[in-house]
Records
---
Amino acid sequence: MNSIEDFINNADDSTKRRAKFFELNYNAPAVVHLTQSKKLYLGQKRNKKCRFCGKSSNETSFKNESHAIPEFIGNKVLIANYECDSCNLKFSTLLEGHLANYMNLSHTLSQVKGKKGVPSFKSNKKLSRIDIRKESVEVKNFDEDSISEINVDKGTISITANTPSYVPVAVFKCFVKMALTLLPDNELPYFLDTMDWINEQPHSNTKFKFRRLQLMKSFVSGVHPFDFITVGLSKRRESATNDVPYMIFFIAYSNYVFQIHLPLCSKDSHLTDVEMTFFPTAIDYTQGSAAFDRSIIDLKSTDWVKGDKETIVMGFNSVERKDL
């Protein structure tokens, strides 16, 4: 291909339609590619003020590094200077723990490196488990607590297990909190209710009501097709032709792309519903939309989800059986 125009023209029809949707309705996204090893800091290093609770360095401490994108997703370098230690500790349990549980099995099998490496996955009964070794995936499977099924002829292993407990709305809020961390200062006044909402605890004690909260999830197979974290925010054009939300956020890493709109924005008070489409990635242009398994998940529930089953199928080159 000789140019970006050729690159776009060779895309499939679905990718072209989605690209046109974003061209008409949104400004080009502000994107951060976390490809560097040197740490990148958001906000000033002196006279710090927490954007989540409003307290200054005279009222609270800023001793710990607050990751703008959770460390369990693989972020080691993007640090927010405007998140205090108290809010950082609160959000780790109030929000991040729920997303970590929601993605636990997926992160293990996709080998997403968090703070302590790739997380192990343990069944509810704590017997069967999955561990990532240096050159292999080790599955311990007990008949009384089975989580895997091997098809030697097809060279596949199916993992079916219960995800750890989580609250759906907390998963959604965790993505919102990432977006609020990345927002430029001049955009924050439009999201005061959004800020109040992510700080609510418990999640069931809320003054905000939603018809739905859509998490747009895309999965593409392979070994880390997104080999670094990319995050982006895209703002609605003044000339937008559709009733679309003011701000959308997306994050791509490993095998996943997640996309949300930022709810409770004062510039969206006229919207009765949210219209969105999947943001086209570089893989859409090179491999086609069919490369992705895409779904839209409603995460508005404030109830705990327990015993939610998830099945993931993987291919393998060889398998070694060990009798314990």
---
Amino acid sequence: MRVLFTLFLVAFALSIEYVVDHAYIDYLKNHVTWEVTDYEENIFRGWTIDEVKQLLIPEEMMDMEISSEPYIITDDSEPKETDWSKDAASCIHDVQNQGSCGSCWAFAVADMVADRCCMQVKDYGILSQQELVSCDKANNGCGGGVRDYAIDYVVKHGLVPEACYPYLAKNGVCPTKCVDGSDWVSAHVCKCQRRINCVGPAQMAKCLETGPIATGFIVYRDFMSYKDGIYHWNGQGSALGGHAIRCIGYGTTPERHWKCINSWGKNWGRKGYFDIGVGECGIDTRQPGYCDPIKN
């Protein structure tokens, strides 16, 4: 009986699929054009595929059709190269960490709004991603969300600063007071004008000329091991889910690419930053958009 139980445990262990291992890292280093994180330095070392999926948005949410008005009208001019981490460095808020909650959509939107609010109105610091997780009932908290719905929430309500409602990395009850006991309603800042969507590479590049945007793309296993360079999917494996991020720039050298900020902390990628090729994994068609805060 003990032998059978041991064999069961061995079989169960063998059935677990980890997102990174030594062999997979060696494979990537020989088959991709971007720099790969060593196994020992990979923050997803020891994570299973199922655990990684909990960080991501169910793929069906990425494909939801949301009414989007107005669209950006592009002209025939070549989009300008932009990098708001240089041109508005004091307003591009720091890399955040969503933890084990699938709240990337809330980080992408709240951080985009915080950046644009600083650039156009006033710097209120980091805005509460947790408010979107707990209070945006059109979305599903740690179970994923649609960025368009989150932007619409900000258009209607604004957001409180992080100091009012700090991040919990889990679902929560929408509060009626800030953590210091101050008034919840009056704590809201950065209420937005209308949502603007930027579907397609040309529109997305034009939108980036005015400030950061929130967008998303389909994540595959190899992305977890990105370290530097311009990411391109290696073409192997099925999708793990969708992911939302903040894009802060557009570049053309050595190829056209988006400059973006992730929400997995500073130990992933290039201290939380990454570049990704134009058109890669649907990044320029998966609800890219933004809203401009109302000027007082």
---
Amino acid sequence: MGQEFENAFEIRGITVAAYYRLLIPEIIPEYDKIIYSDVDVIFRKDLTQIYESTDMTDYYMAGVVDPSPDVFEYHNYIKKLNLLPENYIYSGNLIINSKQLREDGIVQKFIDEARHSHYKYQDMDIINIVCKGKIKKIAPEFCLSLAVRNCAIYQTEPLFYTKQELEESLKDGIIHYSGPKPWEKYCPDFDIWWEYYRKSIFFDRTYYFEFFNRKMNEYDWLPLWKRIKILARWFVFRNRGSK
């Protein structure tokens, strides 16, 4: 990848490697349109239809917008970047118009922003800032994040997607484990990840057994103060639910 992002800003434990997706149009020049995905995902259906049906004419990037209506701090941050929350897409799953990005010299703009800026969401901010006005919002099934799942499960009135679109994402959308990782701890859809892992050529019975065996006894190994904290939290939420 060279030294293009050697001194790029890092935050929240996310390394310089997160910026590498910005170079895709130039390091894979033989393709004009590319699907990019982070590694912490599960694909549950063929991507051919969404790839072929997404017209990228006049757009640099296509992605999924966070549909949550109650993330005010997140939305306020986006507005401070002079962007609109309804147009701000995730960077974990993208459809990239590589041809147009190359022709318009956008990759160099990505690099310049990464070198001289300190954005909270790093590559994601840079994509949305540089590609402003050239971003296409696509169905949430392309990136079933925890926020998308929350809106669909709790029937929260979505700001940017219909309830039908959210329901379809639950059925067979690309699951993106952008928060807790299922190979480290329990999280929503962790069972789906383990199901696919068991079917994969990388399946290791020892690793599988040790993970779940450790989880069965996890609370027994916690220090006393952590156990008390868990009990206190349980009582708080229990009382809230009974009101």
---
Amino acid sequence: MFWLIIPVSYLVFLGGGLLLPGVVLWHRDPLGGGDIAIYLAAVVLMALANLMVCLIMGRILFPQYWWLGQVEGKDVFEYEGIYFLGLRLSRVPGRLQRILFGVDEQMRVWDLAFGVLFLVMLAPHTLAFLTAQQELDRRLPNPTRLAEFLHGPTLSHLPVMRDWGVSWSSDPQLDQRVKRALDDLQNVSNPGDSDRFKLAQVYILQSFHTRRRASDPYLNSPGEQIVFDRATGNRALTILQSLLDLPELERAAWSSGALSLVGLYHISDGNYQAAADVMKQAVAEMGAADESEISRYQVLLLAGQAALLVGDENGAIELLERVLLNEQLPNLAYALAMEQLSDALRLKRQWGKADEMLDKALELYKLERDRAGVARVHLHRAALALDSGQIKDATHELSIASSIASGLNDSFTLNMVARLALAFRG
């Protein structure tokens, strides 16, 4: 039975340890508690596989009395080729134990040898585990996540930007306007809730810095054009938190809008789980009237993006369908929702439906003459082609997006071009 059970157990444990992490790699979500448990289970399986192969080698290489005594638990001892059965050590004087059974020498030598064998065999099993992870990582889908495609539209629709009548761009003139607005708002005596919310928006705008030198910091790719300054963003976060700390009746008119900007901060900072948690609360607290003037569809779009970034495609689709059911939205709002819905469908590997959504979004962007939107659609198509293994089509779409984006003053789109190009090399 030994030569049937132990080798089969070894193969089962080895296969499970090598392949189980593929469950995590298939979804490519940020590591959660369940994913960590899967990796721990894989490590346990590899340790058991290592134990099984050591038992096989011990059965072949070690003395028979060691196997009978240490593995089968029988009271069997040997001295100079003679086996003693059923003899209890407690009945044998200490000096005779050392003479007959070598408790201090022979028994411990073979136990130590088994431990050394276990450690030696652990090395090839560890190498096999790491090699399997690299191969699974190469073969299993690795969907591209475009974290910044809502940044430009969201900043452009901030209430303070609507008051100025401009859209977001990396234009130095906008930087100067932001600095002047910051000075004016900081000098307001006894600022009200509206003034503090405006100040938070201005800090959010100021937190995105254009990279001017190759030595400037970047998040993912040296080709990035703009980076998020956490220190400046923290100033906005402090103000927003003060609004959220108001008594319940006073904060109700501000909570959804303030929470949305907190979510934007976390998305920009790369803390996607925190963004998803905050945006769930923002959606739950949307009211009929919102003094923050952050529209309901913007809240839903940001919540959908946060859900996508943590791998909750179904949650994102539910939120985006609420946007698309509103027949009174402008074309650009529909296009943004369709653009984001295509991402959710792509991450669910429903590539045909994702392509249909991109076609509809592209029509609306062309109708509105929104070149940044057109560029983003081609970026999404490049990601779609890359995920489905159509490298030639992906390269073509990325080239189109890069050409359009290079003629725009839109650093966020250029960032996505740089990061997607990095994905090709990965």
